[in-house]
Amino acid sequence: SMQCFPGLVLALSSLLGALALLQLSLYLRVPSRYGKHEERLCRARGRLPARCAWFLQELPSFLVPALLLALRSPPRLEPLGCRLLCCLFCWHYFYRTFIYPFFTRGRPFPLQLLFFGMLFCIYNGFLQGYYLIYCAEYPNDWCTDIRFTSGLLLFLLGMGINIHSDLLLRQLRKPGEVTYKIPQGGLFTYVSGANYFGEIVEWFGFAIATWSLPAFAFAFFTLCCIGPRAYHHHRYYLKTFTDYPKSRKALIPFVF
């Protein structure tokens, strides 16, 4: 059966950090070409409906840890803190795989980006699941440790902001509409990328609760991946809508 190789965890976590810096260098100045940043000339290329694409992209992040757990004999995930951490990761991706896609009203998704998204979800799902199921060692009272409790609170806060912001974005469009409008309410009162801010807070909370290199590498990747997208969304809104609130920041309330 599979066993823990600390060198593998270190190598995969380091590569994830390097991929984060690559994402930042690629998309800090030019946004990734999908959604509102899509070039018109590219729209005829292969793509899938948004609901199908999001389901396929996020599914490996749920299935891979579940498969790793099924292959673990006997089941490990002790103590309680370790079980809770694995559940948090799978809970997020259960929502992103089986709930979020069936309510989204986004535009058709490019197949090329879907392919790379699926590869990343397989990679990260393996890294986080492998570490928690085969390598992580926590004291029996980890679920009362300040790192776990504060991280859990941040995770739940971030997930709440993310889900609420997604709901507000969906309400901007009637079924069949593809036009973009100014988001209103919730944290959108202060930032253009409220949904992205929520997800970043969520994964940094997970990293603190897990207190592990793989989780911090993933949180850093999330920041480098969707942080620039929030910035480009902000610039798009300012250019497109003359009445866009000038007091809003791109990503972090009152700061950026």
Rounded radius of gyration (Å): 19 Å
User: What profile does the largest beta sheet have?
Assistant: 2 strands, antiparallel
Q: How many helical elements?
A: 7
Q: Helix coverage percent of residues?
A: 55-70%
Say how many strands there are: 2
SSE order? HEHHEHHHH
Give an account of the 3D structure.
The protein is mostly helical and 256 residues long. The protein has one domain (11-37, 46-240). The protein is 62% helix and 2% strand. Strands 1-2 form a two-stranded antiparallel ribbon. It is globular, with a radius of gyration of 19 Å. InterPro entries: 3-oxo-5-alpha-steroid_4-DH, 3-oxo-5_a-steroid_4-DH_C, SRD5A/TECR.
In a few lines, what is going on in this structure?
It is found in: Endoplasmic reticulum membrane; Microsome membrane. It is built from seven helices and two strands, in the order αβααβαααα. By secondary structure, the protein is mostly helical.
Topology, pairings included?
Layout: H1 6-27, E1 47-48, H2 50-71, H3 80-98, E2 109-110, H4 111-135, H5 146-170, H6 194-210, H7 213-240
Helix pairs in contact: 1-4, 1-7, 2-3, 2-4, 3-4, 5-6, 6-7
